[in-house]
Design a protein that fits this description.
Blueprint (H helix, E strand, L loop, with lengths): L1 H35 L4 H22 L4 H35 L4 H19 L16 H17 L6 H25 L1 H38 L8 H37 L2
Helix pairs in contact: 1-2, 2-8, 3-6, 3-7, 3-8, 5-6, 5-7, 5-8, 6-7, 7-8
Length: about 270
């Protein structure tokens, strides 16, 4: 009986430890940025992110809304679908590597697309000529948040296509990572490529898997409703716990943006001296 009670307590404390750990990591990032960046804005943004993670614990402790319990329930419900999303992403990686082995290198396509985007933005700069310092684009956390929030939202809304678009997003991102990994890894070293990807990828991909899992779960619930196995497609309790999970996933996406913009290169330089 004591063992069961201790296990139940550990289960309840799990989400609390997680959100506080992420809040602490965000705060440490803010302190690092306060020292290394000339502007205070990145540190302020990371501090707000820490507040966002800590808010889960604060609201849970200061109110009766049971936020952490609902968040954990949302995770348990969506975990199989998150796993399915990760599996489709892994299949995409294998397809990307296979395409590279067949002579299809997407690196040139990505560089060309980025070049067109930069040129387009440079033309909008008043008084700036393409290629000059005044027309360059600074890679900031905000830029990564904006770019990555699109796929995050679309992975959820892909449920409208009965999951087809969500599946396409996961496979496409996997193909891109697999193909670029095979190409870039051969140029700079696979260890370096992994170091460039993992620090922010562990948060960014988890966020994307959560979003896709929500999309796939919505499709499954809709199918259950059509078959008569479920009384309601959407309920207030389901929307509440799923909304919390989506918010948590998006905060992970923001954390990934800060790591990618300000920490990844420093980590690679520390590991490989490049």
């Amino acid at each position: 009986m004591a063992t069961r009670s201790r296990a139940a307590t550990d289960s309840r404390d799990g989400p609390l430890v997680l959100v506080l750990a992420l809040a602490g990591l965000s705060l440490l990032t803010a302190l690092y940025l306060l020292v290394t960046e000339s502007s205070i804005r990145p540190a302020a943004g990371a501090s707000l992110l820490a507040v966002g993670f800590a808010a889960f614990a604060a609201i849970d402790r200061l109110s009766r809304r049971r936020v952490l319990a609902a968040l954990e329930a949302g995770w348990r419900e969506h975990r199989p679908y998150v796993g399915f999303a990760a599996a489709t992403f892994a299949i995409g990686i294998l397809l990307g590597v296979l395409l590279y082995a067949l002579g299809v290198d997407l690196l040139e396509f990505v560089l060309e697309a980025l070049g067109e985007e930069l040129v387009g933005d440079e033309e909008l700069e008043p008084g700036g000529e393409p290629g000059t310092e005044s027309s360059s684009i600074e890679l900031t956390a905000g830029l990564f948040v904006v770019n990555n929030s699109g796929p995050f939202v679309l992975a959820i809304l892909g449920a409208v296509s009965l999951g087809a678009f969500t599946l396409l997003i996961m496979v496409f991102n996997g193909v891109l990572i697999g193909n670029l990994g095979a190409g870039i890894g051969g140029l700079i070293g696979y260890g370096e490529f992994v170091a460039l990807l993992v620090p922010h990828g562990v948060f960014e991909l988890t966020a994307l898997f959560i979003a896709a899992g929500i999309g796939f779960r919505l499709v499954h619930r809709f199918g259950q409703r059509l078959r008569g196995n479920r009384d309601s497609f959407l309920t207030k309790r389901y929307l509440y716990r799923t909304g919390l999970l989506a918010c948590f996933g998006w905060l992970l996406l923001v954390l990934a943006a800060f790591v990618e913009a300000y920490l990844t290169i420093a980590i690679v330089e520390a590991l490989f001296g490049i």
